[in-house]
Amino acid sequence: MTRSVDFPLLILAVTALSLSPLLGVAGKFSDDLKPIRREVYGGGKIFDISHRYTPEMPAWESSEGLASFLRLAASMKNGSFANVSEMKLSVHSGTHVDAPGHFIDEYYDAGFDSDSLDLQTLNGPALLVDVPRDKNITAEVMESLHIPRGVRRVLFRTLNTDRRLMFKKEFDSSFAGFMTDGAKWLVENTDIKLVGLDYLSFAAFEESPATHKVILAGRDIIPVEALKLDDVEVGTYSLHCLPLRLVNAEGAPTRCILIK
Ligand SMILES: *[C@@H]1O[C@H](CO)[C@@H](O)[C@H](O)[C@H]1NC(C)=O
Ligand SMILES: *[C@@H]1O[C@H](CO)[C@@H](O)[C@H](O)[C@H]1NC(C)=O
Ligand SMILES: *[C@@H]1O[C@H](CO)[C@@H](O)[C@H](O)[C@H]1NC(C)=O
Q: This protein's superkingdom (predicted)?
Protein backbone atom coordinates (compact mmCIF):
# COMPACT_ATOMS: atom_id res chain seq x y z
CA MET A 1 0.00 0.00 0.00
CA THR A 2 2.91 2.36 0.54
CA ARG A 3 3.37 2.62 -3.22
CA SER A 4 0.02 4.26 -3.83
CA VAL A 5 0.94 6.92 -1.29
CA ASP A 6 4.52 7.49 -2.41
CA PHE A 7 3.64 7.91 -6.05
CA PRO A 8 1.42 11.03 -5.83
CA LEU A 9 3.79 12.50 -3.24
CA LEU A 10 6.68 12.08 -5.62
CA ILE A 11 4.73 13.73 -8.45
CA LEU A 12 3.77 16.55 -6.14
CA ALA A 13 7.39 17.08 -5.11
CA VAL A 14 8.63 17.01 -8.72
CA THR A 15 5.87 19.39 -9.81
CA ALA A 16 6.64 21.80 -7.00
CA LEU A 17 10.33 21.74 -7.87
CA SER A 18 9.86 22.27 -11.59
CA LEU A 19 7.26 25.00 -11.12
CA SER A 20 9.13 26.88 -8.42
CA PRO A 21 10.65 29.48 -10.78
CA LEU A 22 7.13 30.37 -11.95
CA LEU A 23 5.75 30.92 -8.48
CA GLY A 24 5.78 34.42 -7.08
CA VAL A 25 6.65 35.33 -3.49
CA ALA A 26 3.16 34.55 -2.31
CA GLY A 27 3.33 31.14 -3.98
CA LYS A 28 0.77 32.16 -6.61
CA PHE A 29 1.10 31.51 -10.35
CA SER A 30 1.61 34.54 -12.55
CA ASP A 31 -1.43 35.56 -14.61
CA ASP A 32 0.18 34.90 -18.01
CA LEU A 33 0.74 31.22 -17.27
CA LYS A 34 -0.49 29.68 -20.53
CA PRO A 35 0.61 26.46 -22.22
CA ILE A 36 1.75 26.61 -25.85
CA ARG A 37 -0.31 24.34 -28.09
CA ARG A 38 1.21 23.52 -31.46
CA GLU A 39 0.81 21.48 -34.62
CA VAL A 40 4.42 21.83 -35.74
CA TYR A 41 7.56 21.45 -33.64
CA GLY A 42 11.29 21.77 -34.15
CA GLY A 43 11.15 24.79 -36.47
CA GLY A 44 9.02 23.06 -39.11
CA LYS A 45 10.52 19.57 -38.91
CA ILE A 46 8.03 17.68 -36.74
CA PHE A 47 4.33 17.58 -37.65
CA ASP A 48 1.80 16.36 -35.15
CA ILE A 49 -0.72 14.42 -37.24
CA SER A 50 -2.84 13.30 -34.29
CA HIS A 51 -6.05 15.02 -33.24
CA ARG A 52 -6.65 16.54 -29.84
CA TYR A 53 -9.13 14.62 -27.71
CA THR A 54 -11.95 17.04 -26.90
CA PRO A 55 -15.65 16.64 -26.07
CA GLU A 56 -16.47 18.13 -29.49
CA MET A 57 -14.51 15.67 -31.60
CA PRO A 58 -16.66 13.25 -33.60
CA ALA A 59 -17.44 9.75 -32.35
CA TRP A 60 -18.64 6.80 -34.44
CA GLU A 61 -22.31 7.11 -35.39
CA SER A 62 -22.97 9.75 -32.76
CA SER A 63 -24.26 13.28 -33.12
CA GLU A 64 -22.99 14.23 -29.66
CA GLY A 65 -19.25 13.83 -30.26
CA LEU A 66 -17.02 12.33 -27.59
CA ALA A 67 -18.94 14.42 -25.04
CA SER A 68 -17.92 14.06 -21.38
CA PHE A 69 -15.28 11.36 -21.77
CA LEU A 70 -12.97 13.01 -19.24
CA ARG A 71 -13.67 13.90 -15.64
CA LEU A 72 -11.71 15.14 -12.70
CA ALA A 73 -11.97 12.25 -10.24
CA ALA A 74 -10.00 14.05 -7.55
CA SER A 75 -9.60 17.79 -7.49
CA MET A 76 -7.39 20.15 -5.51
CA LYS A 77 -10.22 22.66 -5.36
CA ASN A 78 -12.15 20.02 -3.43
CA GLY A 79 -9.38 19.23 -1.00
CA SER A 80 -7.44 16.49 -2.77
CA PHE A 81 -3.69 16.88 -2.74
CA ALA A 82 -3.51 16.37 -6.53
CA ASN A 83 -5.74 16.69 -9.56
CA VAL A 84 -6.47 13.29 -11.06
CA SER A 85 -8.52 12.90 -14.25
CA GLU A 86 -10.20 9.76 -15.48
CA MET A 87 -11.32 8.98 -19.01
CA LYS A 88 -13.88 6.68 -20.54
CA LEU A 89 -13.97 6.34 -24.31
CA SER A 90 -14.09 3.86 -27.17
CA VAL A 91 -10.59 2.72 -28.13
CA HIS A 92 -11.55 3.71 -31.70
CA SER A 93 -11.80 7.39 -30.71
CA GLY A 94 -9.70 10.13 -32.23
CA THR A 95 -6.45 9.16 -33.93
CA HIS A 96 -6.22 5.39 -33.42
CA VAL A 97 -5.09 2.05 -34.78
CA ASP A 98 -7.13 -1.07 -35.48
CA ALA A 99 -5.85 -4.48 -34.41
CA PRO A 100 -6.74 -7.69 -36.31
CA GLY A 101 -9.34 -8.63 -33.67
CA HIS A 102 -11.49 -5.63 -34.60
CA PHE A 103 -13.39 -7.41 -37.38
CA ILE A 104 -12.17 -10.99 -37.14
CA ASP A 105 -13.45 -12.74 -34.05
CA GLU A 106 -10.98 -15.67 -34.15
CA TYR A 107 -8.16 -13.14 -34.03
CA TYR A 108 -9.78 -11.34 -31.11
CA ASP A 109 -10.03 -14.62 -29.16
CA ALA A 110 -6.45 -15.51 -30.06
CA GLY A 111 -5.23 -12.22 -28.58
CA PHE A 112 -4.37 -10.13 -31.66
CA ASP A 113 -4.90 -6.91 -29.71
CA SER A 114 -3.28 -3.49 -29.84
CA ASP A 115 -0.36 -4.79 -27.77
CA SER A 116 0.45 -7.29 -30.53
CA LEU A 117 0.98 -4.67 -33.26
CA ASP A 118 4.43 -4.43 -34.81
CA LEU A 119 6.22 -1.20 -33.90
CA GLN A 120 8.42 -1.64 -36.96
CA THR A 121 5.35 -1.32 -39.17
CA LEU A 122 4.17 1.68 -37.18
CA ASN A 123 7.51 3.50 -37.46
CA GLY A 124 9.54 4.20 -40.59
CA PRO A 125 9.50 5.94 -43.97
CA ALA A 126 6.01 6.88 -45.16
CA LEU A 127 4.46 8.48 -48.20
CA LEU A 128 1.71 11.09 -47.91
CA VAL A 129 -0.45 11.17 -51.05
CA ASP A 130 -3.53 13.08 -52.17
CA VAL A 131 -6.28 10.95 -53.64
CA PRO A 132 -8.89 12.11 -56.19
CA ARG A 133 -11.65 14.01 -54.39
CA ASP A 134 -14.55 12.79 -56.52
CA LYS A 135 -14.33 9.07 -55.69
CA ASN A 136 -13.85 6.69 -52.81
CA ILE A 137 -10.67 4.63 -52.90
CA THR A 138 -11.52 1.92 -55.41
CA ALA A 139 -9.17 -0.48 -57.21
CA GLU A 140 -9.12 1.96 -60.11
CA VAL A 141 -8.09 4.83 -57.85
CA MET A 142 -5.40 2.70 -56.18
CA GLU A 143 -3.98 1.77 -59.57
CA SER A 144 -3.97 5.42 -60.70
CA LEU A 145 -1.89 6.48 -57.68
CA HIS A 146 1.14 4.51 -58.99
CA ILE A 147 2.51 3.83 -55.54
CA PRO A 148 5.84 2.07 -56.15
CA ARG A 149 6.47 -1.47 -54.87
CA GLY A 150 8.55 -1.37 -51.71
CA VAL A 151 6.60 1.52 -50.18
CA ARG A 152 5.38 0.12 -46.86
CA ARG A 153 3.51 3.02 -45.27
CA VAL A 154 1.05 5.33 -47.02
CA LEU A 155 -1.11 8.11 -45.64
CA PHE A 156 -4.03 8.80 -47.94
CA ARG A 157 -5.36 12.35 -47.78
CA THR A 158 -8.95 12.57 -49.00
CA LEU A 159 -11.89 14.90 -49.26
CA ASN A 160 -12.35 14.32 -45.50
CA THR A 161 -9.48 16.72 -44.81
CA ASP A 162 -10.93 19.39 -47.15
CA ARG A 163 -14.33 18.96 -45.46
CA ARG A 164 -12.68 19.21 -42.03
CA LEU A 165 -14.81 16.26 -40.91
CA MET A 166 -12.67 15.51 -37.85
CA PHE A 167 -13.40 19.01 -36.59
CA LYS A 168 -17.17 18.48 -36.79
CA LYS A 169 -18.96 17.08 -33.78
CA GLU A 170 -21.60 15.27 -35.76
CA PHE A 171 -20.56 11.91 -37.26
CA ASP A 172 -20.78 11.98 -41.06
CA SER A 173 -21.23 8.61 -42.76
CA SER A 174 -20.53 10.08 -46.20
CA PHE A 175 -16.80 10.24 -45.42
CA ALA A 176 -14.35 9.06 -48.08
CA GLY A 177 -12.51 5.80 -47.58
CA PHE A 178 -11.49 2.48 -49.06
CA MET A 179 -14.01 0.42 -50.97
CA THR A 180 -13.56 -3.35 -50.72
CA ASP A 181 -12.07 -3.64 -54.21
CA GLY A 182 -9.57 -0.88 -53.39
CA ALA A 183 -8.49 -2.75 -50.27
CA LYS A 184 -8.12 -5.99 -52.28
CA TRP A 185 -6.04 -4.18 -54.85
CA LEU A 186 -3.79 -2.84 -52.09
CA VAL A 187 -3.29 -6.29 -50.57
CA GLU A 188 -2.59 -7.97 -53.92
CA ASN A 189 -0.54 -5.35 -55.72
CA THR A 190 1.41 -3.31 -53.16
CA ASP A 191 3.80 -3.78 -50.24
CA ILE A 192 1.80 -1.38 -48.04
CA LYS A 193 1.63 -2.53 -44.41
CA LEU A 194 0.37 0.71 -42.84
CA VAL A 195 -2.74 2.39 -44.24
CA GLY A 196 -3.41 5.88 -42.88
CA LEU A 197 -6.62 7.83 -43.47
CA ASP A 198 -8.17 11.08 -42.35
CA TYR A 199 -11.49 10.06 -40.77
CA LEU A 200 -12.63 7.63 -38.09
CA SER A 201 -12.49 4.62 -40.42
CA PHE A 202 -10.15 3.85 -43.33
CA ALA A 203 -13.02 1.91 -44.92
CA ALA A 204 -15.95 3.73 -46.50
CA PHE A 205 -19.06 3.41 -44.34
CA GLU A 206 -21.06 1.53 -46.95
CA GLU A 207 -18.65 -1.41 -47.19
CA SER A 208 -16.94 -1.08 -43.82
CA PRO A 209 -17.02 -4.69 -42.44
CA ALA A 210 -15.96 -6.37 -45.70
CA THR A 211 -13.21 -3.82 -46.32
CA HIS A 212 -11.82 -4.14 -42.80
CA LYS A 213 -11.72 -7.93 -43.16
CA VAL A 214 -9.71 -7.70 -46.38
CA ILE A 215 -7.08 -5.50 -44.74
CA LEU A 216 -6.96 -7.26 -41.35
CA ALA A 217 -7.05 -10.88 -42.62
CA GLY A 218 -3.28 -11.21 -43.12
CA ARG A 219 -2.54 -9.69 -39.66
CA ASP A 220 0.33 -7.74 -41.24
CA ILE A 221 -1.40 -4.50 -42.28
CA ILE A 222 -2.20 -1.86 -39.68
CA PRO A 223 -4.91 0.75 -40.33
CA VAL A 224 -4.24 4.11 -38.67
CA GLU A 225 -7.40 6.18 -38.61
CA ALA A 226 -8.49 9.76 -37.97
CA LEU A 227 -5.12 11.24 -38.86
CA LYS A 228 -4.82 15.02 -39.00
CA LEU A 229 -3.32 15.60 -42.45
CA ASP A 230 -4.08 19.33 -42.80
CA ASP A 231 -1.23 21.65 -43.71
CA VAL A 232 1.30 18.92 -44.45
CA GLU A 233 2.86 18.72 -47.89
CA VAL A 234 2.64 15.60 -50.03
CA GLY A 235 5.89 13.67 -49.89
CA THR A 236 8.07 11.30 -47.93
CA TYR A 237 8.50 11.53 -44.18
CA SER A 238 9.58 9.47 -41.27
CA LEU A 239 6.36 8.34 -39.57
CA HIS A 240 6.16 7.49 -35.89
CA CYS A 241 3.01 6.05 -34.34
CA LEU A 242 2.99 4.71 -30.80
CA PRO A 243 -0.36 3.18 -29.82
CA LEU A 244 -1.19 2.45 -26.19
CA ARG A 245 -0.50 -1.17 -25.16
CA LEU A 246 -4.09 -2.06 -24.38
CA VAL A 247 -4.18 -5.79 -23.75
CA ASN A 248 -7.42 -7.37 -25.07
CA ALA A 249 -8.41 -4.19 -26.91
CA GLU A 250 -8.91 -4.50 -30.69
CA GLY A 251 -7.70 -0.94 -31.18
CA ALA A 252 -5.93 1.86 -29.36
CA PRO A 253 -5.58 5.62 -29.36
CA THR A 254 -2.22 6.60 -30.77
CA ARG A 255 0.01 9.62 -31.14
CA CYS A 256 1.41 9.92 -34.66
CA ILE A 257 4.00 12.36 -35.91
CA LEU A 258 5.77 12.97 -39.19
CA ILE A 259 9.40 14.07 -39.24
CA LYS A 260 10.80 15.74 -42.34
C1 LIG B 1 -6.79 21.30 -10.21
O2 LIG B 1 -8.14 21.22 -10.57
C3 LIG B 1 -8.85 22.42 -10.45
C4 LIG B 1 -10.32 22.10 -10.63
O5 LIG B 1 -10.79 21.56 -9.43
C6 LIG B 1 -8.31 23.41 -11.45
O7 LIG B 1 -9.04 24.62 -11.43
C8 LIG B 1 -6.88 23.64 -11.10
O9 LIG B 1 -6.31 24.50 -12.05
C10 LIG B 1 -6.11 22.36 -11.03
N11 LIG B 1 -4.81 22.60 -10.46
C12 LIG B 1 -3.69 22.24 -11.02
C13 LIG B 1 -2.44 22.52 -10.25
O14 LIG B 1 -3.65 21.69 -12.09
C1 LIG C 1 -16.31 19.36 -5.87
O2 LIG C 1 -17.28 18.87 -4.99
C3 LIG C 1 -18.59 19.37 -5.22
C4 LIG C 1 -19.49 18.86 -4.12
O5 LIG C 1 -19.35 17.47 -3.97
C6 LIG C 1 -19.06 18.93 -6.61
O7 LIG C 1 -20.34 19.43 -6.89
C8 LIG C 1 -18.07 19.44 -7.63
O9 LIG C 1 -18.44 18.96 -8.94
C10 LIG C 1 -16.67 18.98 -7.30
N11 LIG C 1 -15.76 19.61 -8.22
C12 LIG C 1 -14.77 18.95 -8.81
C13 LIG C 1 -13.94 19.72 -9.76
O14 LIG C 1 -14.52 17.77 -8.59
C1 LIG D 1 -17.89 7.48 -50.52
O2 LIG D 1 -18.78 6.53 -49.99
C3 LIG D 1 -19.77 7.06 -49.14
C4 LIG D 1 -20.58 5.90 -48.58
O5 LIG D 1 -19.76 5.07 -47.77
C6 LIG D 1 -20.63 8.04 -49.92
O7 LIG D 1 -21.60 8.61 -49.07
C8 LIG D 1 -19.74 9.12 -50.48
O9 LIG D 1 -20.50 10.00 -51.28
C10 LIG D 1 -18.61 8.54 -51.30
N11 LIG D 1 -17.68 9.62 -51.64
C12 LIG D 1 -17.34 9.93 -52.87
C13 LIG D 1 -16.40 11.07 -53.03
O14 LIG D 1 -17.76 9.33 -53.83
A: Eukaryota
